[in-house]
Write a structure and sequence with these properties.
Largest sheet: 7 strands, mixed
CATH class of the largest domain: Alpha Beta
Strand order of the largest sheet: 15-17-18-13-12-20-21
Bound molecules: 1,4-dihydronicotinamide adenine dinucleotide, magnesium ion
Structural class: alpha/beta
Number of domains: 2
Shape: globular
Number of strands: 24
CATH architecture of the largest domain: 3-Layer(aba) Sandwich
CATH topology of the largest domain: Aldehyde Dehydrogenase, Chain A, domain 1
Distance between the termini: 58 Å
Length: about 475
């Protein structure tokens, strides 16, 4: 059921979408398939709720979010199991996602009353000041890879600033979003503040992002859909935050602590089956250690096993057959172009053949202009590239149209600073990698990776607008 104006709601048409578990492809639930009229109702509910919610003192909105964080924590096992079943991710990852969601609601529960305006020196006889005001109704279009986490970063920041919400989760992973909206009601959020509509992107998502009653749109997903959403929002000249994925490099210099780097390099692309916007999908390796690092990675890739979410192996199934086929097609294209596969993982024997599994693949010596070097694969596929020196590394790192995250592995302190400044990415990690945690850290892209920033205090600025007030008391 959707949650509209504080109540469960089907689609007005009565239409539903079957929900299958990626681990076995079997249908286990259904969700309403919303269309324009359903979106109208949800946006109207959010509009009605807005004036009153914006007038709730910031610290009280914070308390509601803090209460929600406790309820998410109290229901952690149920939420982790539901997320794993809906997305095919190992239960361990489902638990990590719940823990991150708890932190987001907790962080924004404590942050919203700490955003201050300014007083500005102005003409004699005048006082000028600024307020941060909510946009109004925020539309959040959420992808299927980390629904609990991405919903929490959107809802936490939007609600902390006094916006009301209409959220459209992905048709492939809507179940935990519905559950969180129920918990938000239990936490005490007034009816109409946190609405959830479910349905297909091209119908429900398109209707929501182009709705005249929406004041701001935030989206995480593919660049192509980001373009469609921006065009829809542009019809009403509404602002947007876009988080559109990446082709994030990890740069390994010859002096790096390889024992520390290797497990992180593997995890950065295997976590969630590689279906992570910040996946470290390119590893650039300085020539003197190229063979050694490639060999060590190959050894690890060979041992990686994909299997059912309950089995909690290295990775689960991919989200659906289309995604599995997309990944398989990109790998096949690279193979037929002569790019060398250094290692392949396996699919567990206990994995049902009706599930959407794809065994990890490691490519070596990838030409920088190959499709797999330039395009987001969103699967467990890692590409290795040798480089000659620092200049070459930076050129390669910046050679795609994306710029979300980068990792730098070197013990040379001056080089850490030089490279971190020159890599075009919204987040740079030095001798570390990972954006999934770190709710405090501003996150977002350059270039095709999008614009606007989520997470941390920065998100509170995206989720509000500055109002300047000038008093003439001369
Ligand atoms: P998508 O970007 O189309 O879907 C994400 C969300 O957008 C879903 O909620 C979907 O219902 C909605 N949507 C789709 N079309 C829409 C439209 N016209 N208007 C409004 N909302 C719309 O991603 P998709 O097709 O599921 O996956 C394709 C590729 O996108 C993946 O292989 C991956 O490369 C990328 N992707 C990146 C994500 C990230 O975190 N950066 C997340 C999901 C996908
Ligand atoms: Mg699902």
């Amino acid at each position: 059921m959707q949650i509209v104006d504080g109540k469960p709601a089907g689609a007005l048409s009565g239409e539903t979408i079957d929900i299958a578990c990626p681990s076995d492809g079997r249908v286990f639930a259904s969700i309403p398939a919303a269309a324009d009229a359903d979106i109208d109702l949800a946006v109207a509910a959010a509009r009605r709720a807005f004036e009153r919610f914006a007038a709730v003192p910031a610290f009280e909105r914070g308390r509601l979010l803090t209460r929600l964080s406790r309820l998410v924590e109290d229901n952690a096992e149920e939420l982790a199991a539901l997320e794993s079943r809906d997305t095919g991710k190992p239960v361990r990852q489902g638990r990590a996602d719940v823990a991150a969601a708890v932190r987001y609601y907790e962080f924004y529960g404590g942050a919203g009353d700490k955003i201050h305006g300014q007083t500005i020196p102005f003409l004699e006889g005048y006082t000028a000041l600024t307020l941060r005001e909510p946009h109004g109704v925020v539309a959040g279009i959420i992808p299927w890879n980390y629904p609990l986490q991405i919903l929490a970063r959107v809802a936490g920041a939007a609600l902390a600033m006094g916006n009301t919400l209409v959220v459209k989760p992905a048709e492939d992973a809507s179940l935990t979003t519905i559950r969180i909206a129920e918990l938000a009601l239990e936490a005490g959020f007034p009816a109409g503040v946190f609405n959830v509509v479910t349905g297909y992107g091209a119908k429900a998502g398109a209707a929501l992002s182009g709705h005249h009653g929406v004041d701001y749109v935030t989206f995480t997903g593919s660049p192509a859909t980001g373009t469609a959403i921006q065009q829809a929002a542009a019809r009403n000249n509404r602002g947007v935050t876009m988080e559109l994925g990446g082709k994030s490099p990890q740069i390994v210099f010859a002096d790096a602590d390889l024992d520390k780097a290797l497990p992180v390099l593997v995890n950065a692309v295997i976590q969630n089956g590689g279906q992570t916007c910040s996946a470290g999908s390119r590893v650039l390796i300085e020539r003197p250690v190229y063979e050694r690092v490639a060999g060590a990675l190959a050894e690890r890739f060979q041992k990686l096993v994909a299997g059912p979410h309950e089995a909690d192996l290295d990775l689960g199934a991919l989200i659906n057959a289309k995604q599995r086929d997309r990944v398989a097609a990109m790998v096949a294209e690279a193979e037929s172009a002569g790019i060398k596969i250094l290692a392949r993982g396996t699919v567990s024997r206990e994995a049902p053949s009706s599930g959407y599994y794809f065994a990890p693949v490691l490519f070596g010596d990838v030409p920088p202009d190959a499709t797999i070097a330039q395009e987001e694969i969103f699967g467990p596929v890692l590409s290795l590239f040798p480089f000659d020196d620092e200049e070459d590394a930076i050129r390669l790192a910046n050679s795609t149209d994306y710029g979300l995250v980068a990792g730098i592995w070197t013990l040379d302190g001056a080089r850490q600073h030089r490279v971190a400044k020159r890599v075009r990415a919204g987040q740079v990690f030095v001798n570390a990698y990972g954006a999934g945690g770190g709710v405090e850290l501003p996150f977002g892209g350059f270039k095709r990776s999008g614009h606007g920033r989520e997470k941390g205090f920065e998100a509170l600025y995206d989720m509000s607008a500055t109002k300047t007030i000038v008093f003439n008391h001369g």
